[in-house]
Structures are given as structure tokens and as C-alpha cells.
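Milestone M4 deliverable, item 7.
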Amino acid sequence: MYYIDPHDLEYVQWEPTSFCNANCIGCPRTDNETMLTKPYIAKFQRHASEPQIKYFIDSIVDERLVNLKTVQYNGNIGDAMMHPNIDDILIAISKRRPNIHQIVHTNGGGPWAKKFAKIGEYISKENPDANIAFTFSIDGLEDTNDMYRKNVQWKHIINNSKVLREHNVRVKWRMIKFNHNAHQVEQAKQLATSWGWEFDLNQETFGQELVDIYKDNKANTDLYKEKIKNFHLEFEDMFYKYPKNNNKFTDSCYWQKNNSIQIVSDMTVWPCCWTSHFHFYYGQDNEKIWNKDNVTIKDLMNPKIPMLKQWEELFNSESKNYYESPDIRIDEKNLLYNVLVGKTFTSIGKKLKYNNEFNLDICKNYCRHYHNR
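Output delivered:
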């Protein structure tokens, strides 16, 4: 029994890079006090390499994935447009498997006009029917967008949008509605319409409390240097205070139900974008994580059960943890199809649930209470 039968796979989300030009409030990469990138994230950042790009493209054009319909470039902490070869990746897949719908999610606010122009020229001159589109996450106008999307430059959004409009590339403006930008929703919609873009409003605001606290913060390099000097492992980042609940549930995995899978920049494959967040915790000091006195999987009343330890105790073998399992990594001899039929992924479906209820707090948090609310 497969977690997802590769013949049924419809949607792949790939984060080709963990670099980002922004430090959004509430993003795992952002230290909200300084509005700069957390030290362990800064150390961890990487682009998918040239060989890894080839393995990814070979995986996507693999004829065994007969029902694959969409590739979305998005993920945990990176902006896809930061990858130096994102234009070449999109074009290569479009040429080899033109029916695949490719969607790039970006904040749109980096100096990427040349990459957008290359993609636009491919579409307008070589393939007007190319199945390539963009979603720009723009949360307000010039005076409000960077209150949440720190370090995103409005001038780049304007310049990049102009390039895409010149080549008639399909773009959606996706706006999160916050207290500080709610008065601009109609104006933003009108601007998007004038550009020939779709407009999508997300009214279920994520992190409104954090935004209210930190929206006026500016980058503070002096405080950042002080925090690095006194740096310690941030255990609280790993904990979710999940309340005890005696109700009975019939849980359904949102990603599995939609035949979707997440791949990150080091080519490891994860059941969803939520679990793939774990991959940058493995770069921290595991010994401290596992041996901290008040961290225990045995006491289910403890509000500080770390999700990563739950994941490890459920999935690892005696010899290796999940992240070290070679069959979850895409490479020349182990394409995505092979990962999905491999031993590790075949076992996931049997372990995530017991009596139709999720075993992991991360699944209870996101699939039970977020997607199914």
C-alpha cells in the first residue's frame, strides 16, 4: 500500500532554494525582534545544485507519473525567484512536458527583471500557450506591503510587473488582508485589474497578533550581533502547545487526499509542506534536542512535546533517522517515482494514523484544524 500511488500523483510542490530576499513576520526564517534571518537559517540556506535540478526535471517529465498535472514552486523559507536558474528550469520542463501547469509563487520584490524577461520572451516568441504562471504575494500598496513582507522593495515589484505585462504572462496578485492594509483592498484589486492580473484576497489572516506587534520594526543589525554572540538553541520554536481533546475524529490528510507531495532544495521528499519544515531543524544540535530534560514523548499531557521528536520516534529506524534515509532523496537513480514506491514512503501511510486519527501533533494542528475547519 502506497502513501501516494505515483500513478495517482497530481501535484508536486518544490522549493528550489531556501534563500529569500524577505523577512516576513512569522516566517520560520525571521527573527522578529531584529527583522533579520535567524542564525541557523542563514547558515542552512542553499540552492538546488545543477545536478539536482536535472534530477528534478527528469522526475517531473517521467512518463510513469501519468496523472501529474501541476508543479508549484513554493515551500518553507525560500522564494523561488531567488534561484539563479529558475528561468531555465521552467523553460526546460515546458519544452519536455508542455501539459504540466507550472506556477511560481514569489513576493515579486527582488531584482529579477532579467529572469522574468527570459521567461516572458520564451512565452511570447516561442510558446504562447506555455503553461507557466506566477502568483505575486503582495500584501498592500507601496506604503503597507513591507509592514509584513519586510525588505521587499516596491520598485522591484513595479519593474517586474511591467516586464511580465509586456510579454502577456499570466499573473495572480494574492493579498493577505491585515488590519493595517484592509482599507487598501479595493485599490489593490483595481491596480491588479489594470495590469491584467487576477486578484485573490486571503481574509483568513495568518499571524495578525504578531503583525500588530512587529509591523513597525526595522532591521536592527546591532541587536542581531548581540543575539548571535549570546546564541542558544531556540527550543520554543519547535514546540506546539496542543490542547488535550477527548473528542473522536476521523482524520484526513489534506495533501494525501489531493495526491500532492513536497520536495525541498536538498531533494528530500516529504508528505507535505508542514512536515518538510523539519528538514532545517536537523542542522541543529540533535543531542540537545533529544536530551533536554523536559522533552519527552511519553508524557502526552506535556504541552511541550516537540513535533520533531514525535516524527523521529514514529518513523526512524534503529540505524538512521528519516532525514538520513537514502530512499527519500531524489537523485540520478532514485527519481520521484522511485521515492514514492520506496520503503520509507510506503511505510508512512501505515504510521500517520491509528483508528482513523492522526498520531502526530503536527498533523492534528494543520490537517485536522486548519484544512478541515
